[in-house]
Amino acid sequence: MERLQKVIANAGITSRRKAEVMIEEGKVKVNGQVVRELGVKVGNSDKIEVNGVELTQEVKRYFLLYKPRSVMSAVSDDKKRRVVSDFFTDIPERLYPVGRLDYDTSGLLLMTNDGDFANQLMHPKFEVEKRYIARVKGIPTKEALRKLENGVMLEGRKTARAKVRLQSFDKKKEKAIVEVIIHEGRNRQVRKMFDIIGHPVQKLSREAYAFLDLKGLNAGERRELTHHEVKKLKALTQFGDKK
Questions:
Q1: For residue 111, what is the domain's CATH number?
Q2: Are residues 88 and 38 in the same domain?
Q3: Same domain, yes or no, for 86 and 100?
Q4: Position 238 pLDDT exceeds 90
Q5: Which domain holds residue 177?
Q6: Which tens digit of pLDDT belongs to each residue from 158-172?
Q7: pLDDT band, residue 14 (cuts 50/70/90)
Q8: 86 with 137, same domain?
Q9: Based on the domain organization, do 29 and 77 belong to the same domain?
Q10: What per-residue string of b and e applies to 39-71 under the rule 16 or more CB within 10 Å gives b?
């Protein structure tokens, strides 16, 4: 037996939080009866309807996508821009991105129809590491990079400690390549961090998420995660990212 909102989220319809709202609004029926209580538990034999449509359990799918630049981390866009779901039109399950990458940022993005799994991975308390490679304007000093490592004030709140390493630089072109590892996921965080130290990002890519990387993939390509990889990711939400 599992809580009703969790079953709805696991079916890939919506997040658990939105499922709770739908229950409270009377949009969910169990065995023909409207249910408004969030604590109700259901089993495999129960008939669940959401907005009049019977719930069917989808097979859980987990993918790694190499998101290109100029693609929205969304399943639709009112401006008709390209979205990440465009790379999964042959997959019958409805997949959603785990977190997001900016429109102008490329790199590793997880896609799944397992809402509970996605919400757990995105929860800040689990501190899942993400590694970025940034091409920035100018050449940051050791002192400037140390500021990023120790945390900078961003929109009234200090960023968590980061791992920062200057990979290379070009004095003539006045640019540098910097590796940044963070576990937070604030909106455009890496770009804003470099803005604060006076070295705007010119190009940004997420190269790794926890133990996963982009090896063997080109921009726009994907692969399905192995059972072992999914198991390891789920373990991170129990024990943290102890690599």
A1: 3.30.70.580
A2: no
A3: yes
A4: no
A5: 129-209
A6: 999 999 999 999 999
A7: confident
A8: no
A9: no
A10: ebebeeeeebbbeeeebeebebbbbbbbbbeeb
Cα distances from 62 to residues 28, 97, 115, in angstroms, run: 27, 10, 11
- Our CA angle for 88, 67, 72, nearest 5°, is 80
Residues 105, 221 within the same domain: yes
> H or E element: which one contains 34?
strand 33-34
Burial class (CB in 10 A: 0-12, 13-18, 19+), 156: exposed
CA distances from 242 to 51, 129, 130, 232, 236 (A): 42, 10, 13, 11, 8
Query: What predicted TM-score, i.e. pTM, was given to this entire model?
Result: 0.78
Residues taking part in catalysis: 102
CA dist 170 and 139 (Å) reads 8
Q: Domain check: are 135 and 166 in the same one?
A: yes
Q: Based on the structure, what is the number of domains in the chain?
A: 3
State the virtual CA torsion across 69, 70, 76, 79 in degrees, nearest 10.
170
> What is the per-residue pLDDT across 135-146, written as a single tens digit (0 to 9) for each?
999 999 999 999
Q: Where are the beta strands (DSSP E) in 68-211?
A: 96-97, 106-112, 130-137, 153-154, 157-158, 163-170, 175-182, 201-209
My answer on whether 37 and 74 are in the same domain is: no
Q: How far is CA 174 from CA 72, 139, 171, 194, 203, in A?
A: 30, 6, 5, 15, 14
Identify the burial level of 142 via C-beta atoms within 10 angstroms of its C-beta, where 0-12 means exposed, 13-18 middle and 19 or more buried: exposed
